Amino acid sequence: MNHLEKAGKTRTILISISILMVSLHTIYIYNSVIPEIEPKKIIQQIIRFLLTIGLLLMIYKGKSWARIIAIILFVLGILGAVRGLLTIKQSILLKSPFIVMLLVYTVAIYHFWLSKSFKAFFNYQNRLDNSESNNNI
After folding, report:
1. Residue 36 has what pLDDT?
2. Whole-model pTM?
3. For the chain, how many structural domains are there in total?
4. Is residue 137 part of a domain?
5. Residue 134 included in any domain
């Protein structure tokens, strides 16, 4: 693994952790403002969180379909965050989670779509996958 591939691996892991932290924070904020916890909603949020982990693992393994789906979902997340920033009539401090979402998802889109280090790591992961497939034959 060369320097660019190592940088792509490190950044992919860090961005993935950031995305998971935003997801956990969203779950926490939603459940902290409602007076009674809804079991159905908690189950939905846990499933969404597990699917997020699965999607990020597939990106890490070099699956192109996962990268494309993630980029689409991050764009939708950015649109939701912008909508939240514009429609919620609160102080900027209470809007800070939306700002964090904007930053994390924007960095994630840049990284998974345009970053040279991610492309190098992505190609490295695909070469590993192909060599393992050839060894199993």
Report:
1. 84
2. 0.86
3. 1
4. no
5. no
Burial of 80 (0-12, 13-18, 19+ CB in 10 A): middle
Instruction: Give the 3-state DSSP-derived string for 100-136, with helices as H, strands as E and coil as C.
Output: HHHHHHHHHHHHHHHCHHHHHHHHHHHHHHHHHHHHH
Contact 46, 111 (CB under 8 A): no
pLDDT at residue 70 in the model: 97
Q: Is residue 50 situated within a structural domain?
A: yes
The pLDDT value given to residue 134: 65
Token pair 């969203």: residue: 26
Say whether pLDDT at 124 is over 70: yes
pLDDT tens digit sequence for 63-121: 999 999 999 999 999 999 999 899 988 888 778 889 999 999 999 999 999 999 999 99
Show the domain range for 62: 3-129
Q: Is residue 136 part of a domain?
A: no
Q: What length is written for the chain?
A: 137
